[in-house]
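Students often ask why we bother predicting the structure of a whole assembly rather than each chain alone. The short answer is interfaces. A chain on its own may look different once its partners are present, and contacts between molecules only exist in the joint model. In this exercise we take two input lines together and write out one structure for the complete complex. Read the inputs first and try to guess which parts will touch.
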Amino acid sequence: MIAWNVTRGEIEDFLYREAALLDDWKLDEWATLFTDDAHYVVPSNDFPAADPTRHLVMIDDNKQRLLARVERLNSRHAHREFPHSRTRHQVMNVISEGGDEQGLRVSASFIVWRFRNDRADFYVGRYDYVLAAAETGGFRIRYKRATLDMPSLEAAGTVSIIL
Amino acid sequence: MLDSDLARLVDEDLTRFRVDRAAMTSQEIFEIETVRVFESVWIYLGHESEVANPGDFVRRTVVGRPLMMIRSRKSNAVRAFFNTCPHRGATICRQDAGNAKVFQCFYHAWSFDSDGALIGVPDEAGYPPSFDRADFGLMPVPRCESYRGFMFVSFNPNVEPLVDYLAGAKEYIDLIVDACDDRIEVIAGKNDHGIEANWKLLAENSFDGYHALPTHETYFKYLAKIDKTDEPGDDSASSSYLANGSVRDLGNGHAVIEKFSPYGRPLAKWAPSYGEESRAEIEQLRARLVKRFGTETAIRMMDNGRNLLIFPNLVINDVMSLTVRLFMPVRPDRMRVTAWAYAPASESPLLRAKRLDAYLTFLGPGGFAAPDDVEALESCQQGYAAGGIRWNELTRGMAREPRATDELQMRAFWRRWRDLMANRVLAGAAR
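Now the answer. The structure tokens for the assembled complex follow.
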């Protein structure tokens, strides 16, 4: 256990700013929050504990694919998201789970709303983060996992936005 | 609607093939389709390996009907039952999958063994002497047969044997299962999602080579970057791969497109995106497949991708990864899709990880391509509401040797659909 001298308020500020970047579609800036060895993972609905090297998940991005995802969403050719949907990332129940050599472990609850074409979709679940200390102060994201509570994507259909 | 009206939903002559958009929007047609298509042919249920051990079960909804697939503890046979208590109707199996000694209905605690026999009734003395347990076993689905591990059911007791129904599709299942060393397993974690569109639009989309470049430009760009191949354009490798594939009508509504794969394949074509660490292993696998199946068959197995539709609602895409996609009608404008990743049980952890990585890039609800397919299908369904235009055009390739970017495969699907809808196919008669 490595002691991190941070308050929940500092962690929350960081997560809220990340959420605002996503809702504002400032995806290039959002991607700069991630370390070069970062992973962004969304497990399949039916298997929250999945290991992406052995089990089928929905998203398992390293930094290269995360940047490609951003480039795709910024283009006019990610048809599911052009024109962009309106989203609202709500982050709550933030808990610091303690630090180790990888960084500070943080969990939170989320509700992400997506509105487009007269549709209202929602994604509900749990975030697990590993946050690294940024050289400039504050945090960078080494690992982000968005585990969905819904047993299927019966309503939402896809995960075309970033959770 | 009269049979003759139903037959006219598909309109064709020598140079024109059109489908009435009412086939995607009409509630009346949807209800006829449930009976004449889905309750008369074979429908995929799942893979035998999902119930590998005696007492294993999975539940699955097929055309709105809750079913369960159970491996018998006595005979080891895999059977399908209607998931409803013969007593008062509650669903017996209330978990997606598991293993059980006894299947007990929670409502009045009737219990059944893995062969469906009623083995326990609380306070059985309350029933008249005529009460016979043998009358109240779980009801098996009328027909349940498997081909090389792929388990199908039919609600039609007179349907032809599964091997006859599969017709030319058998050869492709053989190719895929052979390449997997005859032992496929289903990777844990499935894609399970809805689409606000008629199910037939996904059947068309699943082997529509024509849409690949325009709809999935962002995917091909990404692939070009990581595999250092040409970007899509008129002269690029990906354009010629899409143009030069072949297409075959396999009979009974099944069809396939097959083409050289510009991307890597876990079985067994190395590409830069697979990383140097997997190169030697993939080369060994190539050599083994050539030795076992001969150069011609092995090269086809390894270097070609194929998109196979087994009529009406099963798609086996043997592409950058092996995916099995099953879709069920819910309403005229809504379907439910389940997709799995299948793989050889013998695969090494390294290649398994590469396979999964390749799957995610293109496929699945969070991939770089599949969400845009969902958008395309929903957009078509929304467009039908406009009215004004009655027909969908499926004429491509009618005046040349059809290619993978043409529409022969869709015409094969629609002809079979029309023949079933218009009662032109006798129950149990293979084409």
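Check your guess against this: The beta strands of chain A are 34-43, 57-61, 86-100, 103-116, 119-133, 139-148.
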